[in-house]
Amino acid sequence: MDKNLLQKAKAPMIALIQTKKIMNYNNLKTKTKRAAALLLMLALLAPLAAWAQHRDCNGPIAITADAPYFEGFESPTGTSIFEDGPLPGCWEAHSTGWTTPAPHNCNNANYAHSGSQRLAFYTANSSDYAVLPEFSNPISDLQISFWMRTNTDTDGQLQLGYITAEDDGTCNTFTPVATYANSVDYVMRTSDLPNVPVTAVRLVLKWENSFASVLRCFIDDMTVSINLALKPTELTCTEVTGTSATLTWTSYAESWQIMLNDDEDNLIMADTNPFTLTGAWPRNYA
């Protein structure tokens, strides 16, 4: 049995084990606003000055266990891979390249994982950044998954990371948290983010190509969701009697298992929070 002992109270010894929840994403609808906008061209005199911006947001996006954020890059209508184009609502982009476009919605259906468009990186001798929308949730509570493919399985590198509020618009605070292997076929990439600090404000995809020849990386069908495998926190034990106690905790899940005194064979199911534990032996309580 997966112990996954999440937190113990001092008296009695109680552990919460979060049960898995399976969500049907097919019934979920994207609730983010999308509107067409063109990326700003980088000025020749200041190529690192700012992101190409696409702002049509009404504040940070809230993600719940039943409403993840999904982006299929189908809107707004994109351009070819060779020219600058729009991004989805609330996304931003930055490129250090002089001759290649910044990340953008690309409308060549031949290279989309689904639908007719995908996010395209098309770079040579540069590092390009695609900045995700701001979420109201702590990034450490989230999980990200997306489909990825490249035009070579050797050169170029895709990283997932974050930037902080101190960023100057060039992703100068970018800190990587995951690096993905290249694949000439679409593969799903999934990353948990438990170690991202509270100072992080935006997730960022970075495609780096140090070669003179152009390399491509495509991203499609991205989901950012609550990480339901996160450990419950802030477990408290109140209203303690000789044979009962009321437990409360913080968690995104909908059901849990309670383990008393490390007894894995007699787990107690709980589908409410708070939960009143009854029928315990008096000796279990201080």
Care to describe what's here?
By secondary structure, the protein is mainly β. 0% of the residues lie in helices and 37% in strands. The chain has two domains: 8-21 and 232-284, no CATH class; 26-226, Galactose-binding domain-like (Jelly Rolls). The strands form four sheets. It has a six-stranded antiparallel beta sheet with strand order 3-5-8-13-10-11, with no helix packed on it. It is elongated, with a radius of gyration of 23 Å. Mean pLDDT is 79; it is low at 1-12 and 20-55.
Fold topology:
Blueprint: E1 8-9, E2 14-18, E3 52-53, E4 69-71, E5 92-95, E6 104-106, E7 118-123, E8 126-131, E9 142-150, E10 157-164, E11 175-180, E12 187-192, E13 200-209, E14 215-226, E15 233-238, E16 245-250, E17 256-260, E18 268-270, E19 275-277
Antiparallel strand pairs: 1-2, 2-17, 3-5, 4-14, 5-8, 6-7, 7-14, 8-13, 9-12, 9-14, 10-11, 10-13, 15-16, 16-19, 17-18
> What is the CA-atom radius of gyration, in angstroms?
23 Å
For this structure, what is the CATH homologous superfamily of the largest domain?
A: Galactose-binding domain-like
Mean pLDDT across residues? 79
Query: What about the largest sheet?
Result: 6 strands, antiparallel
From the spread of the alpha carbons, the general shape counts as elongated
Encode the helix/strand succession as letters. EEEEEEEEEEEEEEEEEEE
Class from secondary-structure proportions: mainly beta
Task: Tally the beta strands.
Answer: 19
